Amino acid sequence: MPGENLTREEARTRAELLSVQGYEVDLDLRSAVGDAGEGPRTFRSVTTLRFTCAEPGAASFADLLAPSVTAVTLNGRELDPAAVFDGTRIALDGLEAENTLVVDARCAYSRTGEGMHRFVDPEDGEVYLYTQYEPADARRVFANFEQPDLKAPYRFRVQAPEGWTVWSNGAGELTDGVWSFAETKPVSTYITCVVAGPYHYVTDSYRRTFEDGTELEIPLGAMCRKGLAPHFDADDVFLVTKQGLDFFHDHFDYPYPFGKYDQAFVPEYNLGAMENPGLVTFREEYIYRGKVTQASYERRANVILHEMAHMWFGDLVTMRWWDDLWLKESFADFMGTFSMVGATRFTDGWITFANNRKAWAYRADQLPSTHPVTADIGDLQDAKLNFDGITYAKGASVLKQLVAYVGRDAFLEGARRYFKRHAYGNTTLGDLLSALAETSGRDMTGWAKSWLQTAGVNSLTPQVELGEDGRVAQLTVVQEAAASHPELRPHRVAIGLYRREEGALVRYARAEADVSGPRTAVTALSGQEAPELVLVNDEDLTYCKIRFDENSLATLRAHLGEITDPLARALCWSALWSLTRDGLLPAREFVALVLRFAGRESDIGVLQMLHAWARTALVSYAAPAWREEGGRLLAEGALRELRAAEAGSQHQLTWARFFAATATTDADLQLLEGLLAGSEAVEGLEVDQELRWALLQPLVVHGRAAESEIAAELARDNTASGKRHQVRCLAARPSEAVKAQAWAQVVESDELSNALVEATIAGFEQPAQRELIAPYAGKYFEVIARVWRERSIQIGMDVVRGLFPSLQDSPDTLAAADAWLEAHTDVSQAARRLVLEARDDLARALRAQECDTKAA
């Protein structure tokens, strides 16, 4: 058999042949505690699967990834497990019109966040379980037909260790030692879920009375590990949840269909969250152990609402195959911000979207692996990698443009018709477009071709001609596209004209225009006074790279911090970063702009992005000869802003973290030591446990703190979070032996869990230790094909992405990547894509360094 990498054609063939009536899944998880004995720790999984076959006598297969199968029964016939199960699939021959398949298997607990993940809390030894399946890991827990268009209702029954609580998609009850759960609505395999363990659990309730007098009550629950309970602000989670449910009921006209609404914050989670209906799972890092900024709470609210939007976009109506993944992820990404701004206290969410989410999209859309929003997904490995900036953030940006194109009311009415027409079914692009065409009166074919079926990002540049009177005679928007993706799209944009008034840079004129083709004249702005700044895509209506004319760029160099509108300011920062990435603005100039104006940035999320961009500019895009000076300037600027920030403010905390990340000189490191020891203080700055780890790591990197100091910090914070920090710090020590050990732990062993692999890689890769880790550049290209072949796809992705020798930024590394790609055409396309993307990032960095060198 072809193995575990299911192809689109295989899925299509199976869907034409089979229809699933229902699943009964019995899991015995009592083996999660106690001695596992020899071999992998496993649990018993018994699946009863009822399905029909359109062609009696035909053959097909079920999916299962398990160490062993005890028994297989098809329509009462006992099959030989050794003959029909190859480790990934169960062969099914001689199917009848109606079939019952029973599979009794031993499935393995996971340490990589795929399937049934098992976590042991180092703080108290308690065991916690949860499942994570997307796109195709339900087959690690029970036998099934692992594709999104074979939806079915499920009944789960679970035996668990005494004292545990178990949750699943439906409401559950404990009877005679077995947890039984209500049958689900028809859903896809990848959104079924089980969470089990001694979780801390808080409850609430949501009530809604609709205009017709019907009432809806949704039981709410939220859970986390017991060790995180003191930090768990469940009230805020429930507040955002209720606000979101109100918003979606107001706008979707389709009541939440899945009964209860539990939200589990779980350890060692690979994703941000997952939209399992009735039991959403989140990474537990959204529970904050120390002081964080409002940007963190906004980010959590956005994720909560993103997953809630999936209850309609993805769970109620599901894409037929993964090439229409955008039908759920793009909509959820857009709706997360749309609902957050419309229903919660985070009314500036579109600023974060413009500055943060779209930066992810712009990067992904300029990689050689870029793809249309509606992608060509041939198999499951392709699907795994397409949870990317195109599918999420570009798709969401395109939907924002769509709302501007068809109007908000038509867009929402199209969504309402889509839900009612396809409830509990599967759809493709055409199903949604037909609903939107009905409600908007527009032909969606051309729009979809330009925005959904082509790749690449356009750039929009203003050209201003002044008349003899000094006013605007002609303003033209020039649209360009990369030669590799030449599509010039239709854009609905706002163009803002800005000038300085009493020390502020303010907008004095605005016009909306439909931009298409290479040049578009904006006649509505003719006759206006000469602008000091022209901002195309003001208000961020479209998806494009913003460029500036020379006069506007000069204005930003001198007065960027004077822009009063925070969204306009964020858009200018994003555009300047794009120029830096494209090698059109020297990295040292971007750093200088951050040092000059970031201290005036009011939006904390924008400030945090500026810090991240400045670090990338220094580490990757600046000329190597300038890095030491640039690092010193950044640290000096960070310390200056830290001391100037309001005592106890979120800006103060943000500058403190940035200072720790940039500290390199003896004086800087002494200050960090003093802040840790309590002999130094910054008024209002609370050095809590999370900040202590942030202060300790640069000391470790620069050899000012050793294993004993790391151990002492772990003793203060002997928790799961503390363990991750400890592992990262241990791998960050400046020692050849340390680097060799870290490399072996990640590459040559599978003993570490997914979270600790991630932490080890983060510690291993330190910009201040380029020479120390240089020998591993060659080793990387020697081992990655084997790692991809032998390890799970999640660990393979972590290793291939995380250990690519980007810090060895020379043409030699570029040549080594090219040589590997040329010599390994037989390696999975998914693995080759990861190397190709990292290679492209390196090539971009070298071009930017060349630009910066010329500016010296």
Write up this protein.
By secondary structure, the chain is of the alpha+beta class. The chain is built from 28 helices and 28 strands. The strands form 7 sheets. Strands 5-4-7-2-1-10-13-12 form an 8-stranded mixed sheet. Strands 15-16-17-19-18 form a 5-stranded mixed sheet, covered by helices on one side. Strands 8-9-14-11 form a 4-stranded antiparallel sheet, with no helix packed on it. A hairpin with a 2-residue loop joins strand 12 (172-175) and strand 13.
Radius of gyration from the alpha-carbon trace, in angstroms: 28 Å
Q: Rough shape?
A: globular
Taking the alpha carbons of the first and last residues, their distance comes to 60 Å
User: Low-confidence parts, pLDDT < 50 over ≥5 residues?
Assistant: none
What is the subunit arrangement here?
Answer: single chain
Please report which band the strand proportion falls in: under 5%, 5-15%, 15-25%, 25-35%, 35-45% or over 45%. 15-25%
Characterize the largest beta sheet: strand count, sense, and whether it forms a barrel.
8 strands, mixed
Decide which structural class fits the backbone. Answer: alpha+beta
The total count of helices amounts to: 28
**How many strand elements?**
28
Give the mean pLDDT: 96
Helix content: 40-55%
Spatial strand order of the main sheet: 5-4-7-2-1-10-13-12
Short description:
With 856 residues, the chain is α+β, with helices and mostly antiparallel strands.
Topology:
Layout: H1 8-17, E1 18-28, E2 42-53, E3 60-63, E4 68-74, E5 77-79, H2 81-84, E6 89-92, E7 98-108, E8 115-120, E9 127-132, E10 154-159, E11 165-168, E12 172-175, E13 178-181, E14 194-197, E15 200-209, E16 215-224, H3 234-252, E17 261-266, E18 273-274, E19 279-283, H4 294-310, E20 318-319, H5 326-343, H6 349-365, H7 380-385, H8 390-406, H9 408-422, E21 426-427, H10 429-440, H11 444-451, E22 459-466, E23 472-480, E24 491-501, E25 504-515, E26 519-521, E27 533-538, E28 545-546, H12 550-559, H13 566-581, H14 587-597, H15 604-621, H16 627-644, H17 650-662, H18 666-677, H19 689-701, H20 707-716, H21 720-731, H22 736-748, H23 754-764, H24 770-773, H25 776-790, H26 793-802, H27 811-823, H28 829-854
Parallel strand pairs: 1-10, 16-17, 17-19, 20-21, 22-28
Antiparallel strand pairs: 1-2, 2-7, 3-6, 4-5, 4-7, 8-9, 9-14, 10-13, 11-14, 12-13, 15-16, 18-19, 22-23, 23-26, 24-25, 24-27
